[in-house]
Amino acid sequence: MTTAPAFGVYVHWPFCLSKCPYCDFNSHVRHAAIDETRFVRAFAAELAATATRVPGRTVSTIFFGGGTPSLMQPGTVGTILDAIAKHWTIAGDVEVTLEANPTSVEATRFRGYRMAGVNRVSLGVQALDDSELKALGRLHTAQEALDAVAIARAAFERYSFDLIYARPGQTPQSWGAELKRAIAEAAEHLSLYQLTIEADTPFAALHKAGKLKVPNEELARALYDTTQEICAAAGLPAYEISNHARPGAECRHNLIYWRAHEYAGVGPGAHGRLDIDGERRATATERRPEAWLLRVETRGHGVVTDEALTPGEIADEFLLMGLRLAEGIEMQRYARLAGRSLDPRRIAILREEGAVETTSSGRLRVTHSGFPVLDAVVADLAA
Ligand SMILES: C[S@@+](CC[C@H](N)C(=O)[O-])C[C@H]1O[C@@H](n2cnc3c(N)ncnc32)[C@H](O)[C@@H]1O
Ligand code: SF4
After folding, report:
1. pTM
2. Which end of the chain is more exposed for a tag (fewer CB within 10 A), N or C?
3. What does each C-alpha distance from 201 to 196, 198, 207 come to in angstroms?
4. Residue 11 φ then ψ, to 5°
5. Measured from the CA of 124, which atom of ligand 1 is nearest?
6. Can you tell me the mean pLDDT for 34-60?
7. What is the atom index within ligand 1 of the atom nearest the CA of 138?
8. What does each C-alpha distance from 321 to 3, 173, 233, 251, 259 come to in angstroms?
9. In this predicted structure, what is the pLDDT of residue 3?
10. What are φ and ψ of residue 33, in 5° steps?
């Protein structure tokens, strides 16, 4: 294990073959071929510009997210990894994750990604039923997704997959059965997201028109409870509100976000948190892929936002991200960041309500019954 502080690199690939009707990620469909060589040059330039700002780091995790990074050629991924290694030291136990869509075409590239240096894949399986996949606008069948999982299992040391639950018409029984089938295919990690109706998506329009009925609060709660019970019994407890792992198999890259450590973000619409001259800086790049490309080609980077966060903002972010974790937050670290302690009276009230608990080692964490109302708990503590 490396002892250097955690430092992650996020690489955003902003293209998809089609846009799923529920998704509001920065992903775009292009009918012409993507000029990967041109994009790779831009990624390399943005990495170089970022490394000038935060030199001397040891990279503990790298994450290719999207969009659909599994549309990239393995050679493209390899060249980006080489560019990262040119500027920073790579930890011996580096975790390199790539998000993949589970189609048969993409699975043919898995070995190439492994050869390029990827050692973990996260597959967007979403559901194990063909009509449900169709309703989600997915381009793969359940069998195709399971075949991709099997190929991932053979090619990588570590893999995870995502499912979306609290879908229209789901009951705790039907979801429980689907989840058990999924667990039989899972190894060490699963991401289980409740369907969120995101503004300005086709699902939002259908929802508004009354044509898409999502579970009410009570049913959503029952589905959440089913998820926790089945996963915990299978040795995959939640370590974060939507993420389950065998102990030690957590996604180390995402832990960097939730534990408020440092990370660089490159590619269209990527966010970063860089510690420079005693300040924590929040960076964000141009979201539109072609505009990002032009910006990098003319200025050497695509950064459009770069601001120092105030102690209050840093502390709020720490609270917001850290309370998503089952381990919770260290209250002293909050006090150091904020320049003041959390209000003990608010903690006492939330504790009486059963929403949070404190530990003898000074941690504050949300309880099982507090997680479904996490936003309210955070708002209460941050206020
Ligand atoms: C960047 S996306 C996916 C990567 C890959 N393009 C895919 O779709 O397989 C990460 C994950 O977020 C989840 N997700 C996206 N939009 C969501 C929504 N509106 N509600 C719940 N989960 C969502 C999906 O499970 C998805 O796999
Ligand atoms: S869910 Fe994945 S494949 Fe679908 S549009 Fe979003 S990023 Fe693309």
Report:
1. 0.97
2. N
3. 11, 6, 10
4. -120, 120
5. 9
6. 98
7. 8
8. 23, 31, 26, 15, 7
9. 74
10. -65, 145
Q: pLDDT band for position 237 (50/70/90)?
A: very high
Q: Classify residue 62 as exposed, middle or buried by CB count within 10 Å of its CB (0-12, 13-18, 19+).
A: buried
pLDDT by residue (tens digit) across 291-340? 999 999 999 999 999 999 999 999 999 999 999 999 999 999 999 999 99
Alpha helices (H) in 163-212, listed in sequence order: 172-185, 202-208
Query: DSSP letters along 295-343, please?
Result: HHHHHS--EEEEEEPPHHHHHHHHHHHHTTBTT-EEHHHHHHHHSS---
Asked if residues 337 and 318 have their Cβ atoms less than 8 Å apart, the reply is yes
Query: What separation in Å is there between the alpha carbon of 298 and the centre of ligand 2?
Result: 29
Residues with a CB atom less than 6 Å from ligand 1: 22-23, 25, 65-66, 68, 99, 101, 124, 126, 162, 164, 193, 195-196, 198
Tokens of 102: 């589970």
- What residue type is assigned to position 63 of the chain? F
**Nearest residue to 130 (alpha-carbon basis) of 144, 141, 145, 139:** 141
